[in-house]
Design a protein that fits this description.
Length: 346
């Protein structure tokens, strides 16, 4: 890779431009809950469809879509506050483990039954079960997905999550559910952190429990990605070379180490707050700046993915993927509702 190449710089520059536009547009009401990552990906798709992408630019675009994506995910670890998660207690952890475990299993199974490939099915499950576009961005390289899969999953699930925020908000104003229960439900079932915040802000008493429930799901991204990566590698090995060869080669499969970087940054961030309790405001300020950088790098990566998409694959899988995502999310919400109800009557 020639970093000084004019084509390389032009490709990276395209992703920078689209990331800046996406972050600016994401402040508008219609796009606020969709988020800058989905917006950047959509802008990349639109650019490719109407303007085209010169062949020489793909090296720089690929650098943004892969290398900068991993760096952005690692830096996102500052979002983690493990103390907050521990304060949530066993019930929150149990709820989130159930939601993620059921979601990953059921939605992946449903996608396979609907004729989607295993990687695309897993990414839909990750988006719905864990933390939306950030989770898909982290899982996609770990699962060996090409750019077409996250390009389909991220905007689709962002739209579903945005509609869910409206349903939750209107439903809460009508049903007047206990704020504690409402916060747990929103935190356990909405796709994005921003969507959870939008849903619980209207009910201030549910803000803390909703935030803790959602952040616990974010922490569980790390073991979920490792488990899915191992399962998918074994599945692909069996399909290609047979069960015997797959079992021999299983120990050499690639590991998503950058996801561990995400967790390490979260641990260091949590320790910093413990060691320097009087410097909370300074640490908050540093974290906000790091998050700005992380989100910008990931917006560049999403734009890069959009610029490299095969539209034929999107058309081929689009309708089935929407059906899987909708059925999967509704079922997931039902499971969470039942578990929360049982917890509160026991």
């Amino acid at each position: 890779m020639n970093l000084k190449s004019r084509h390389f710089r032009a490709g990276v520059g395209m992703t920078v431009l689209l990331a800046v536009l996406a972050i600016g547009l994401s402040h508008f009401p219609i796009l606020r809950h969709i988020g800058p990552l989905s917006t950047a990906l959509l802008l990349g798709l639109i650019w490719r469809a109407f303007m085209g992408v010169p062949l020489g630019h793909h090296v720089g675009i690929g650098f943004s879509a892969k290398s900068l994506l991993r760096l952005g995910i690692i830096l996102l670890g500052v979002r983690l506050n493990l103390d907050l998660v521990l304060q949530g207690g066993f019930r929150i952890l149990l709820l989130d483990v159930t939601v993620i475990g059921f979601g990953l299993t059921f939605i992946t199974w449903l996608g396979l039954k609907m004729g989607l490939d295993a990687t695309l099915s897993c990414l839909i499950a990750v988006d719905s079960s864990i933390c939306g576009s950030s989770a898909v961005a982290a899982a996609a390289p770990a699962l060996g997905a090409d750019d077409d899969a996250p390009a389909l999953v991220i905007p689709m699930c962002s739209l579903i999550g945005t509609l869910a925020v409206l349903v939750y908000t209107f439903g809460q104003s009508w049903l007047q559910v206990d704020p504690h229960i409402y916060g747990m439900f929103a935190g356990a079932t909405l796709h994005e952190v921003a969507q959870v915040m939008a849903a619980v802000t209207a009910v201030p008493e549910s803000l803390e429990i909703g935030t803790v429930t959602k952040l616990t799901r974010v922490v569980l991204l790390v073991p979920a990605v490792f488990i899915l990566s191992g399962w998918l590698q074994k599945r692909k090995a069996r399909e290609k070379r047979g069960e015997a060869v797959a079992s021999k080669e299983g120990g050499g499969r690639p590991k998503p180490w950058f996801v561990l970087g995400f967790l390490v940054v979260g641990i260091l961030n949590t320790l910093a707050y413990k060691v320097f309790p009087d410097s909370r405001l300074i640490l908050d300020n540093y974290n906000e700046q790091i998050l700005v950088i992380a989100n910008f790098l990931m917006a560049m990566a999403m734009a890069g993915m959009g610029l490299q998409v095969d539209f034929g694959k999107l058309r081929e899988n689009g309708l089935r993927a929407v059906v899987v995502a909708l059925i999967g999310w509704v079922t997931l919400a039902g499971v969470a509702a039942v578990e929360i109800y049982v917890m509160n009557i026991c």
